[in-house]
Design goal:
The chain has 177 residues and is an all-alpha fold. The protein has nine helices and no strands.
């Protein structure tokens, strides 16, 4: 019910009583469980914005990051997810949102998988993955007018590896400066 209302009316127009009415429950039930609209929205956004899938494991970090970023774009570009992303960002507080913490954990896992294989090539730090791959995707989804295309994932990963100092994979042109 919350997702539908946010997509239809925008976050500013949604109230707990409206969500309760759409869901066919009493507003007091929602208030007891989530406290307020921000709590309900935060939990819903965290649940919906976290894709339930295994992380890619191709044996190549660049390919893994590209597949991960592409999947993130495809998932977050769904209209309901984009609406929730925008609504959740408007309610962001001084602490890291669960969605960011979850992306950071995934970035850590992707790097840890690569280190476990004994790679001695320069690897990006998880913070760099968040700053140079995840953040531009989320920023464009929230503030951009144009759709974010899955091909954007490759560009972001190539730019990240250019920063880290790892040459692009064979057959791929280096990023344009």
């Amino acid at each position: 019910a919350l997702e539908e209302l946010v997509a239809e009316q925008g976050r500013d127009q949604v109230t707990v009583p409206a969500v309760a009415e759409r869901a066919g429950v009493r507003a007091s039930r929602l208030y007891r469980r989530w406290g307020d609209l921000a709590g309900l929205l935060t939990e819903t956004a965290t649940h919906r914005l976290d894709p339930q899938r295994p992380l890619p494991d191709t044996g190549d970090l660049r390919a893994d990051l590209t597949a991960w970023a592409r999947e993130l774009i495809e998932h977050l570009s769904q209209p309901r997810c984009t609406s929730l992303l925008k609504a959740a960002s408007a309610l962001a507080t001084g602490r890291d949102a669960d969605c960011l913490c979850n992306r950071r954990a995934e970035a850590n896992a992707l790097i840890a998988n690569r280190r476990a294989r004994g790679d001695d090539v320069p690897l990006p730090e998880p913070r760099q993955i968040i700053d140079h791959v995840v953040a531009p995707i989320v920023f464009r989804l929230i503030f951009g007018a144009d759709p974010v295309k899955p091909s954007f994932a490759q560009q972001l990963v190539d730019e990240l590896f250019a920063i880290v100092g790892t040459a692009p994979s064979e057959g791929r042109a280096p990023p344009v400066a």
